[in-house]
Amino acid sequence: MSDDELVVPAQEHGRVRVFALDMRPEQAEFLREPGAVDQVLGLAGLDPAQSDVIRIADLEDLGLAGYLTEGCGLPEEQIAPDRDRLAALEGYVLVLRSRAFGGQAAVIAPDPEVRLIATYDEPDSDWSAQPLRSESALPYSAPSQSPRAARARARRIGGGLFAVVMMLILLLVWAVVF
């Protein structure tokens, strides 16, 4: 393994790597084709949806730092130390997320025209929450009946409905006959 190679461990997640592309615009535009990023990074099988080839001039006032904070969700305090270096970049950059590797270990051996600028960590999701404290959040708390009591109640209701229907039928027959 040479000094230019970068090791990506298996199951890596939450990392964003920014590479400067020191190449002609036509070559950089070609990297948007499927499999082209794989070639310049010396890899195979990257998910093309997880890599962005960006012409820095297209970012206009947002800039690369703004793209990383607002577009990729990276924390501002992580980008701040590199803000001047990111602003000085020209041409094209490659933004590569860990999901591009599909959880597989990899060794990135970039072409000489591809230079790693920085690696950032995406913030972890905060899955903590306060428990809900409202009457509607309480589980159903009516007293439960035994199966025997539930069947007896159902029989009583069914019997009552049967009696009402039969009375209506008898009244209807009586009204027709008399």
Describe the fold and architecture.
With 178 residues, the protein is an alpha+beta fold. Helix content is 35%, strand content 18%. The chain contains 6 helices and 6 strands. The chain has helices spanning 25-30, 36-41, 63-71, 76-79, 83-88, 147-177, and strands at residues 6-8, 15-21, 51-55, 92-97, 106-108, 114-121. The strands form 2 sheets. It has a 4-stranded antiparallel beta sheet. The longest helix is centred in the last third of the chain and has 31 residues, at 147-177.
Top keywords for this entry?
single chain; 178 residues; alpha+beta; 4-stranded antiparallel sheet; two-stranded antiparallel sheet; 6 helices; 18% strand; elongated
